[in-house]
Amino acid sequence: QVCMTNTQKGRHIAELLGLWVMILVCWTVYRQVSLPYIEPSGSMKFYLGQFIFQPIIFLSPIFLYWRFIRKETSTPVRFFPEHSTKNSFVLRALVIGIVLIIIELILLLSIQYPIFNSGLFGSTELEFNFGFLDTESWSHYLVMALSSLLVVAVVEEFVFRGFFQNQFEKVLPKWQSLVLASILFGLMHLPIAIIVYEMEGLWLIYNLIEWIGAGMIFGYAYQISRNIWVPIFWHGLHNVLIGTFNWRFVFEKVPSETVIFSVMTLEKIVYFTTTILLLYALRKRFQNPEIQTISQN
Predict the structure, then answer these.
(1) Contact assessment for residue 139 and residue 287, using Cβ atoms and an 8 Å cutoff
(2) Are 76 and 163 spatial neighbours (Cβ–Cβ below 8 Å)?
(3) Residue 41 CB coordination number (10 Å)
(4) Closest by Cα among 50, 64, 99, 86 to 228
(5) pLDDT bracket for residue 16 (50, 70, 90)
(6) How far is residue 287's CA from residue 226's CA, in Å, rounded to a whole number?
(7) Cα dist. 152→56, 132, 207, 240 in Å?
(8) Is residue 222 within a helix (H) or strand (E), and if so which, with residue range?
(9) What is the mean pLDDT of residues 274-294?
(10) Best CA proximity match to 129, nearest among 266, 255, 250
(11) pLDDT value at position 264?
């Protein structure tokens, strides 16, 4: 943490929150204005619009703040460390990202299967879905995949982990920075949830919990690795996977909406908690041995 007075710390946090509010307002306006032109959600127009406008809306305020208010000459986020080759740094992150997405699948299925076969839902049947078969064309699927990997994951991880979480750590303990950045990450999804997907009530709360939880695990992976490419690859592969392959449980007996919400929320909380604990147990394996060796010397 940087040595600052309480007044300076408060101003630093206020500036960051003000910057976040500016991005949120711009993102909300974009979602509202573009809605008639990008419908339905998930269409080619939807992904192309996101491909073009998300980097502009999210990154421009940060670079302007960094250059004209902070008057910094360096970049807001460091993509590579000083003591490591770029290839090894990115390749290591890619391997970790692939391992994490495999662990994610195993954990989710391991948690969901006993819950949905507990008898509360009657007899259930597990169905696998291949989302790319429902796309308009292979080019549509390719745009979705590239948008998820090259735009959504890169921009959101750059902004929320590489920038906000890092900047909060200058004046706050790491766990507080992680929680605060994750909450801001989750709330940034409200425009698409409310305007595009028209979510409300319990399911808006459920998805907000899911987005904040995702921010926590992506942020903690970044915190222990100090490699921005780890959450970028994990986040990107996660988003591509959702549009490529997924599963669902078909219920014989459908409980009340409150019961389904409670069970699914509990399932998410168990998953995110288990993932955090697993990442904590494996935290030393996330550290770059090349950098560790140099720092020890």
Answers:
(1) no
(2) yes
(3) 13
(4) 86
(5) very high
(6) 8
(7) 12, 18, 18, 10
(8) helix 201-225
(9) 80
(10) 250
(11) 93
Report residue 296's pLDDT band, with 50, 70 and 90 as the boundaries: very low
For residues 107-123, one letter each, b for 16 or more C-beta atoms within 10 angstroms of the residue's C-beta and e for the rest, the string is bbeebbeebbeeeebee
Pairing of strands 124-129, 246-251: antiparallel
Q: CA angle, corner 284, sides to 278 and 288, nearest 5?
A: 125
Residue 295 has what pLDDT? Answer: 41
Q: Residue 159 has what DSSP assignment?
A: I
Token code pair at residue 86: 């770029």
- List the one residue out of 276, 279, 278 whose CA is nearest residue 287: 279
Secondary structure class of 117 (helix, strand, coil) = coil
Using one digit for the tens of pLDDT, what is the confidence trace for 32-41? 999 998 888 8
Q: Which residue has tokens 């669902």? A: 248
The pLDDT value recorded for residue 5 is: 86
